[in-house]
Structures are given as structure tokens and as C-alpha cells.
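Two proteins follow. First one:
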Amino acid sequence: MEYVYAALLLHKLAKPVDEDGIKKIVTAAGVKPDDVKVKALVSALGEVNIDEALKNASMAAVASPAATAAAPAAEAKKQEAPKEEKPAEEALEGLSSLFG
């Protein structure tokens, strides 16, 4: 995750999101950068419009609370389904059959 944060920081500062920049930020944070992860991230971000991705992410975050608020209510409704209870007489009949 720290690699993504480094890329976002570089983008925010209008610096090129490249391997060298990400490595410098991760190193400054006190972590030894993993060259494979850095290369993979830079390669993946090469095809992404970061501004557009951030815009879409912020819209999803606004819509998300409504969707997540509905989920617990639906789950609570499932749990409230009426349980079939045996009438007391049936339960007593079953119990009496144990004793002959």
C-alpha cells in the first residue's frame, strides 16, 4: 500500500510517477523498496488516468455509505424471519414418548 501512497503523492506534487520517485519516497519512509513491486505499480499506472481514477473513487465513496447502510438492515430482516415453534402440546407429547 505504501507504494500506491507514494505514487499518489508524486502525482499530487505534479512529479513524474516513476520507479525512482517511488523508491525515494518509500526509502524516506524507512522501508526498503521492493523493486518488483515498484516496477509492477509503475507499469500498471502507465495505463491509468490517475485524476479520473481518483474522481471515480471519490464518487464511489459518496455512494458507498447508502449501500452499506442498507446491507445491515437487510441482514437484520433475514434474522427476524419467524421461527416455527412447536405447540406446547406437541413438545410434551414428544417428551412423554421418551418415558413410555
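Second one, unrelated to the first:
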Amino acid sequence: MLPPAPSHRILIVTDAWKPQVNGVVRTLTTVVQELQAMGHVVDVIGPDRFRTFPCPTYPDISLSLLPRRRLIRMIEAFRPDALHIATEGPLGLAARSWAKRTGFAFTTAFHTRFAEYVKARIGLPVRPIYAWMRRFHGASQGTMVATQSLRDELTARGFRNIRPWSRGVDLDLFKPYPREEFAHLPGPIFIYVGRVAVEKNIGAFLDLDLPGSKVVVGGGPQLASLQREYPNVTFTGPRHGEALARAYASADVFVFPSLTDTFGLVILEALACGTPVAAFPVTGPKDVLTNADGKIGSVNADLRVAALEALTADREACRTHAERYSWRACAEIFLSHLVPLMGAR
């Protein structure tokens, strides 16, 4: 834990950063803003500051090319009080190598089920990848994890020194707007929002026999193929800001078909807009949607059943539940888990 001080110099190294649009980037961007508002000096080193190459099978993501030397110069020039390594990509690996070599302490976070993503894309088994990830995170002073169910799973896989770190939602942006966006479509409206990629399991939603209309909001490598395969589905492409929030609010149910997310910020965004959520009983949905005051959705191994059950949820209860998740509290928890850079010497 960092010693009490009005201001700390905090360095975050991440392979997921702007202009990428995903939950990791949204989390880090907002936490950085909150930390800066609290008076801390924060720098983020991402792929935007290096030569990059397209990620195999996912060209929308850029990976840093041979970043080690330049990264070390950046770290030493910033002179951080604390180092957080957010991802396990080229930048994360280079920062971890530098910290281990110099004896400096750092923290990490488990944002992404990398093993399951690789298996979905190229078929590699998850066990050796988890073994590698266990070694990667095992060198840190603590690994931040978003949900209790994921903490339990990683503990069973041999991960140690896991620290809880929840998420937040922008309650000023994501709110119950007038429900007009899809008035031209037959109701009820079932919506998916997020990256359009194979690991999101969107086909499980699009294949459901549901009344009304299905809408997909987002972009990604699977967008064109899904548009061809499902001509009766409305694909809006990516949306941001108020346009995104209005799409959430105009739906009757947000369907979250992913089996591999570690939290699912989109769940909180939908709830904040008053839209109930239907999902499989997996990490993220079962952590957020259970033990709510009032019915805010449905978690079921049969996604169709969950979607139909969610139609009867209480939209006011959805908003009330989302209001429990503050980005300031998220940033404060993050700060509490950071360790002094010199702590390992």
C-alpha cells in the first residue's frame, strides 16, 4: 500500500489503450481521470506511443513492436511512485521484465480471459496459457480482479495475492432517456452492445427465437459476416456518448451472450439506462445481477428463457442497482492496492 500523501506519481502500462474501444480502455481512462481529480499525477504508456503491428486475427488492435528500450526510458523519465501493469501484451511483458530485473515492485490486473479468447480464435488449449498467465501475475505484489466469482476461479487455478477491484458507470451519461430510438421496429427490442467478435458469442443471441426485433450496436471483425448471416437483425455499427446511451435506454432487454468476459461494463451501462439484462450464469452477470433489490434481469443457462424473463423486470430497480457502482469508489480501491515502486528492493 502506498504511504499517505496528497499526491503520488502513478504509472500505468497497458497494451489496451485509445483508440481501442473496449471495457479495459473505458475502465483505465475513467480511473485515470478520477485519480487526477484526486490530485495524483498519472501517466499511461500505451501502444499509441510506439511503432505497432496488427494483432493476429484481430487487426483492429495494435500491438507495440519491440518496445523494451523506449519503454524503459519512459518509465525512468517519469519517476513513478507506483507502477501498475494492466495487460499481458508486449508492453506489459517489457514492463514486467524491467521491474523484475531492477527489483521494483508493481501490481497487475486480470482484465481479460486471454486463454479463452485464444482458444476461440485459433483453438489452443487454455491450460498452458493459464499456466503462463499465472507466472506473469505471480511476479506482482497483487493482481486486481473485478468479481468474486473470478477471484474464486483464479484461486482454484493457482493464482495468489488476488485483490478485489470492482467497476463503475457514468451515471450522468447512462440514464433512462426517452425510449424513442427504435420506435420504427416491432417490439419488444432485444439489444446487444459491444465488440462484434467471435469471443463475444453473439451468435447465441442472434439464433434465439424471440418476439419483436434484435439490434446489435458495435463494430469489430465479425460485423460483416454477421450482417450477411442475419439480414433481419438491425446492425447500427459503433455508437458513442449519448447516442449509445439512448440505444440502451430504448431497448426492452439487453442480452449479454458472452461466456468469457471478466465483468462486462456494458451490463452496468444498460442497467443505468433502466434496461434489464439477460445473460448466462457466468462471471460478471451472476456477480452483478444477483442480490439486487427488485428484479433487474435474468441469469439462466437457457439464454432464451433469460431474455423472456427479463421482459418483466423493474426498470426503476435497474437504475437503482447501477447507482451502487461509482467510478470514484473504483479509483479509490485501485489506489489502495498500489504498492511503492521501491517496495521489492
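SUMMARY FIELD: The first helix runs from residue 23 to 37. The mean pLDDT is 94.
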